[in-house]
Structures are given as structure tokens and as C-alpha cells.
């Protein structure tokens, strides 16, 4: 596995890739950064070049951390931020209860649907999470890696949601590390119909874009869009574990590309309170 230090030395010299995907529901920091006007390419928080296929969790996370680093606009989403009077990372955008079944959605760009697999994760070490939610503090590479390891350990299984289809990736072979159905999978990369990640919902181009109904400066804000070629929704369900409670924690999203040596990462600030609905 590449070291954190070696990856950090390489990153400043890497080419910027085009368009891909990011978490939209619940509202990720990337989405909020875009709504503020600072982030002009919300789908561009990319960890690259890394080996993310067929292994899924062996690559060092580097400066991307569990929340993503957007090199195109030089925004580190592993620390709270603000722009034009709008902020992200300072407060939860959604509140859930233990045991909740939650609908989650991300947006994949039409020009950057690389297929592959994706996961949603929770870290139950609040001390590590606190490093990512403290205003004015940017976590070190070592702290980002420690947090990432915690999120990997807290992967929310597709199979935890009763009745949800949890297949194996058609681009993975039995015996490979990607042959697992606790992660979520996109459709076959080169399928003739409903290909890749856009084929999961099979929705129309532009399906993850809509406008707010606010007034003045808040009117006609584009939400859920992608900056290159328009996006498609990718919708799944996750189950919040029973044994977790936090006034402010993070839901991390990670998409591993099948076609390219890249992972796309974003996170949403959430709270988990109350008693389990199953209890």
C-alpha cells in the first residue's frame, strides 16, 4: 500500500480529471460548497491515481480524507468552511434515529460514469470525527488516514436493508477482493442498456438537478447538478446502526471507479439521536 507521505508528494503534480460524482442526499459538504458559489465542480473531489479495483479499501486516503479534497477549486472538505455567507460542516443537515432506513442519493456525471462500486460509512470514534468538524482546524494526513480507517470499519452494508437488491459487480470476478455484496454495485460498465452507475436508477439525464424556490440571493440556485455533461441519480437505502448516538457526526460516501484509478469521496454532516425504531 502506498504511504501517506509518498501520495502527498505526488498529488500536487497530478493532472486534473474531468467530471464524476458526489453525494447529494443528504446534502454533502460538496453540495453545500456548490450552493455557496465557491465550488464550481462538485463532482471533482477525486482521490487519484490509486488502486481501487479490484481491491476496494487498500489505498492510502491522502489529503482526500473521508470528506474529499477538490483540487480543481482547492477546497478541503475535511474541515468546515463558508463562502458568501453560507457554510458547511458546522451543523448537521439531517437527523436520524438508530435503526432508521434512510434513502441516500448521489449524482454521477454523464461524461464520467466509470462504473464500479460504492459505499456509505459511519465512524463511531467521536474523537476522530471531531477532527473533521472543528471550525478552523484542518486534519493532518495521519489524522485523515486514521479517520478513514474508522469509516472503513463502519461500512454500512447493503444487505442490512431488508428486501434491498444487493448483487455482485458484473465487472468483478469471483475470488477478487471486489466480489462482495455488502457494498453497492453499479451495473456493468460497458452494458448496452442501463450501463454503469447511471443504470442503477435508469433515470433521465439531468435527473439530479433542480432549483430552489427561494427569493433574492437564494433564488434559482442549482442543486444536485454536475458541471460537465449533466448528471444521473444513483439511489439506495442504508440502515443506521442501533448502537450509535451523536449530536454531530459524518456520513461518508466513497465511489470506487472500475474504469480508472480513481475514487470519489464526499461526506454529509448528520446527527443520530434517540432510541432505535426497532427497540
UniProtKB/TrEMBL annotation:
Family of the protein in this entry: Belongs to the polysaccharide monooxygenase AA13 family.
Any one GO molecular function term: metal ion binding
Signal peptide, first to last residue: 1-19
The protein's name in its UniProt record: Chitin-binding type-4 domain-containing protein
PANTHER family associated with the record: BINDING PROTEIN, PUTATIVE (AFU_ORTHOLOGUE AFUA_1G14430)-RELATED (PTHR36575), CHITIN-BINDING TYPE-4 DOMAIN-CONTAINING PROTEIN-RELATED (PTHR36575:SF2)
Top-level lineage group: Eukaryota
Keywords assigned by UniProt, alphabetized: Copper, Disulfide bond, Glycoprotein, Metal-binding, Signal
Amino acid at each position: 500500500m502506498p504511504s501517506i507521505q509518498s501520495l502527498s508528494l505526488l498529488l500536487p503534480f497530478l493532472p486534473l480529471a474531468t467530471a464524476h460524482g458526489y453525494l447529494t442526499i443528504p446534502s454533502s459538504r460538496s453540495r453545500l460548497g456548490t450552493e455557496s458559489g465557491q465550488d464550481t465542480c462538485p463532482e471533482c473531489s477525486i482521490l487519484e491515481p490509486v488502486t481501487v479495483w479490484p481491491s476496494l479499501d487498500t489505498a492510502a486516503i491522502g489529503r482526500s480524507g473521508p470528506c474529499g479534497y477538490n483540487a480543481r477549486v482547492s477546497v478541503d472538505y475535511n474541515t468546515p468552511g463558508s463562502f458568501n455567507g453560507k457554510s458547511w460542516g458546522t451543523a448537521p443537515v439531517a437527523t436520524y434515529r438508530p435503526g432508521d432506513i434512510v434513502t441516500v442519493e448521489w449524482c454521477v456525471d454523464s461524461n464520467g460514469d466509470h462504473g464500479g462500486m460504492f459505499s456509505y460509512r459511519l465512524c463511531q470514534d467521536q474523537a476522530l470525527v471531531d477532527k473533521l468538524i472543528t471550525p478552523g482546524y484542518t486534519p493532518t494526513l495521519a489524522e485523515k488516514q486514521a479517520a478513514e480507517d474508522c469509516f472503513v470499519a463502519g461500512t454500512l452494508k447493503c444487505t442490512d436493508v431488508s428486501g434491498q437488491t444487493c448483487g455482485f459487480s458484473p465487472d468483478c470476478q469471483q475470488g477478487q477482493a471486489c466480489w462482495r455484496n455488502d457494498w453497492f454495485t453499479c451495473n456493468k460498465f460497458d452494458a448496452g442498456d442501463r450501463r454503469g452507475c447511471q443504470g442503477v436508477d435508469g433515470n433521465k439525464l439531468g435527473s439530479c438537478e433542480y432549483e430552489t424556490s427561494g427569493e433574492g440571493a437564494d433564488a434559482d440556485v442549482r442543486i444536485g447538478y454536475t458541471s460537465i455533461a449533466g448528471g444521473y441519480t444513483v439511489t439506495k437505502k442504508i440502515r443506521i446502526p442501533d448502537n450509535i448516538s451523536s449530536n454531530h457526526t459524518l456520513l461518508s460516501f466513497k465511489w470506487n471507479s472500475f474504469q480508472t484509478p480513481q475514487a470519489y469521496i464526499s461526506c454529509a454532516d448528520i446527527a443520530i439521536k434517540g432510541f432505535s425504531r426497532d427497540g
